[in-house]
């Protein structure tokens, strides 16, 4: 994921490079792509991989300490609580 | 708190996210093309490539062929599936591994008793109470629980449906949380496009042109996020209508606070189409005053609006609806007259029963968590009320504060509140309590909180407080388990605080931050800019002050003040050099209604300042705040350790890129430094210290006098001259909480903290 307006080829290029950079992590995927008979089959495998069931992540935002996590997990309604990124 | 140099760990798989991003976009584009041009198209052309092209070009072409070859229903299904997976993968990117903090819920009691309303013609009529996004999924709705209890007291059966939890589970809890914290028009628009879409077309392009998600961590994904929310939200709304047997209800009460209008309208419309006989009642703060009447004008799916606190009128309202009676004369209620015109009853009163609490049940919420498999994904807070209204605001309203006619302060009896908390704790086994109070009742410092501590409850509270608390009062809070407060600090400059009519001084704000840090109370606060009448001098002063405060918690957020309906700035703009220009213009995308209606509908408004009150440049203060945050994250500290012989050592790492500075204080100097903990009047400091510590004062006199010592400390920024007082800035290590300080973050300050730790 880079700059705005990336086209499909660029994103898929990232996908291919990510698989090459992390061969062990994506070993199974690489093998099945290699063994596929056509690009159409490879696309179906990629789509299956992307949409397969994943466990819902817990409500634990990255980059926060315990108390801040508590603060982030609720929304205060009387005062607009402006996030860090407002700066 | 992670070290900023550490790479953030999250659960996301970059490969999946990229694949979902690309394939959803392709499916979305193909669907858009089919809708305008019709018919499938084989072999769309490839775009220009950059870099290493072979594999990706072939895959992209194959992906295009795959998408283009699907028939319309399959394409829609794929788009929807990709959208849902993309949002959940994005959510994983926002999430950290591990479990959220807090105790695990004991759900066994809830599972044994799970009544479901029985349908059929002979079944008694019931009231359905509903809350839609964007309430926090980490809390049940106290609004619905209160209304259900009020109806039950009047013999009317009701069920609670916290439908916002389901939506959070669909798009991911962290992403939901992030979106719900955005300014209102974005979360409103996510749903209102499912109300207006068919009639008004889709304003996605116009909305995107305004860059509504400019603040998200991945702006390059903003457009895809908004597009992916469309099918997921549509499916959610459809499922919510289908998954519950709404026919058992003859009245649906929908509770609306911030950012819930779009979702509530879209849901109400679907319900009316499916169950035309159900009467739909909107209520809550979104319906206060003219906003509620505007809702009735723009949304024919809504039958009645309640402008006031619901427990006052909902029972009578339901009885009249069931009896076919007119609603005329019902206080605080608006409905439509025979000609479709909006008819309002007389103004409603306030709920003033403060001796006993209506019992709250959060069973429905917890059953929903169980059903959705969220019990281990969220550690909920239990909301409760200690009071309504604001005891400060009923005397002096802060100029930006948008509380309406509920300002009159009403505090519940402490015994009744404690009994309720104990009952909730016994039922759910959760001791994390979120006070809905706009401001903590002062008397709770003498009644409720000491009693909570005395009974040994190991609970945790959130509370909004006024910032003028004394040290001993904050100790009462800490002892009772108040670990998170939201004080109305808003600024560190006297002139700005005066303009806001905050009723606190910069000294009080600094003291609060210092003592909260010592007591390990998390302090969430904002720094407001851009007030009418402000001058550059205020920001120059703050920019000079902030580097001295790097060891205290920086503001959680900040920005130009917002013009809220019902605030003095809104009600009397001319007094402040403000020219109101109408509803915030971004709401026109969420609610494409005539301007007059929009101006009455929303809470957030647009304005310009008169030329002589134009905001000044505050960039130096903003830069100082950024540096403050960076330093704090890296462990900036200023701590004093008093040794057994009463000498002391102050270690200063507030400037985190510089070596630590160490100051050794004699016993007499230590006595003076500790004397300045709450601040002492500059003009009478010597005399006051002489009275309090005659021997130490005498000794210091021999070494050049108190004034000379203080001047040295001022040069070293160990003390602060503020509001005519001198105040010690260092945190006292012996007073810092022992059991609540987690592992210290690595970084420059860590060594020093580790050195101090044996004394902690």
Q: Helical percent range of chain A?
A: 40-55%
> Helix/strand-derived class of chain A?
mainly alpha
Number of strands of chain B: 26
Beta fraction of the residues of chain A?
A: under 5%
Give the amount of beta strand of chain B, in percent: 5-15%
| Residue runs with pLDDT of under 50 for 5 or more positions of chain B | 1-8, 42-52, 739-760
Low-confidence stretches of chain A: 1-5, 69-87
- Average of pLDDT of chain A: 71
Keywords:
heterodimer; A: 87 residues; mainly alpha; disordered N terminus; disordered C terminus; B: 760 residues; alpha/beta; seven-stranded mixed sheet; five-stranded parallel sheet; 14% strand
Explain what this protein looks like in three dimensions.
Chain A is built from four helices and no strands. With 87 residues, chain A is mostly helical. In chain A, α2 (27-35) runs antiparallel to α3 (39-51). Chain A is globular and about 40 Å long. Chain A starts with 7 loop residues before the first helix and ends in a 15-residue tail after the last helix. Chain B is of the alpha/beta class and 760 residues long. Chain B has 29 helices and 26 strands. Classes of the chains: A mainly alpha (87), B alpha/beta (760). At the A-B interface, α1, α3 and α4 of A face α1, α2, α3, α7 and β12 of B.
